[in-house]
Amino acid sequence: MTTLPHCGTLTLSVDGMTLSVTLNRPESRNAMNLGMVEELASVFSVIEADPAIRVVCLRGAGGHFCAGGDIRDMAGARTASGTPGTDTDPFYRLNRAFGRMIQQVNESSKTVVAVLEGTVMGGGFGLACVSDLALAGPTARFGLPETSLGVIPAQIAPFVVARIGLTQARRLALLGHRFDAAEACRLGVVHQSFTTDDDLDAALEAAIEQIRQCAPQASAVTKALLHKVGHQPMDTLLDEAALRFAEAIRGPEGAEGTGAFMHKRPPAWAVTGEPDQD
Are residues 175 and 163 in contact, defined by beta-carbon separation less than 8 angstroms? Predict the structure, then answer.
């Protein structure tokens, strides 16, 4: 397994195929400063080529997921050198660094699970919107408060639109709307919401077990293919999909999966949680 980076704003732990990443700035409700953004980017870069890690579970310390960007970082950028309106502008660099990180999480080949509790605002809302599975607990409160602060949800806006559609994204962003887990579930921000912490934890365990049943390379290729929908002509996309299917059925996972089905046994990755190495 790849050696994970040392982090000051994140707590990392590995349990089998799952890497748990806990945003760990509880004194600020896990608001993201530049250090946290860079550490998240580093973690996702390191694990991308590590087949032992199949699931990344994102969570926040202290009962909150993430309150968005750190206002103190923004205040500090006012005194930094740079030319407004150019890529040397410190506000541009700070905002764009977050955008690169959230795009990286969005496009990760790993299955990303977000466990959402307490404050899920701004950039934290954006992280929720790029997860493959979002589970919300009873205390979760969501919102896009940027316009009420005189700023804009610049880097997360495209991902919010992709998650819930333009009509709802406009309502949330332009009203600075705050809402609970039940509404987040209705909107499609989260996939499931729970009324107790025990139910939330049980759902997380069940989800990880379901992910274990799916072949890791097939899951990664499927995720990449889904991201291309709407960005390529349909004929081109279906041609590529057919090529990826042919590769999969001829590859080791296809052989193991079809063989396991015929012999009425679980495939190797479902037993060990690790990719088939044959």
Answer: no
pLDDT tens-digit map of 25-82: 999 999 999 999 999 999 999 999 999 999 999 999 999 999 998 877 776 666 666 7
The Cα–Cα gap between 128 and 66 comes to 10
Q: How far apart are CA 183 and CA 100, in angstroms?
A: 28
Residue the block writes with tokens 């550490």: 39
> For residue 278, which amino acid is it?
D
- pTM for this entry: 0.93
Please name which of 276, 125, 149 lies closest in space to residue 214, comparing C-alpha atoms: 276
Q: Is residue 105 within 8 Å of 145, Cβ to Cβ?
A: no
The residue whose two tokens read 């729970």 is: 194
* Residues contacting residue 145 through CB under 8 Å, at least 6 positions apart: 68, 121, 122, 176, 178
Nearest C-alpha neighbor of 57 from the set 107, 15, 7: 15
Query: What is the CATH number that goes with domain 10-211?
Result: 3.90.226.10
- Among residues 77, 80, 5, 57, the alpha carbon closest in space to that of 36 is found at 5
Q: Which two tokens stand for residue 16?
A: 């089998």
Alpha carbons within 13 A on the beta-carbon side of 41: 15
Cα–Cα dist 141/152, whole Å:
19
273 sits in the region (left: phi over 0; alpha: psi -120 to 50; else beta) called left
Pick the CATH number of 215-272 from 3.30.1490, 2.40.160, 1.25.40, 1.10.12: 1.10.12
- Give whole-number Cα distances, 135 to 55, 111, 153, 167, 196, in Å: 14, 14, 23, 23, 12
Cα(273)–Cα(55) distance, integer angstroms: 10
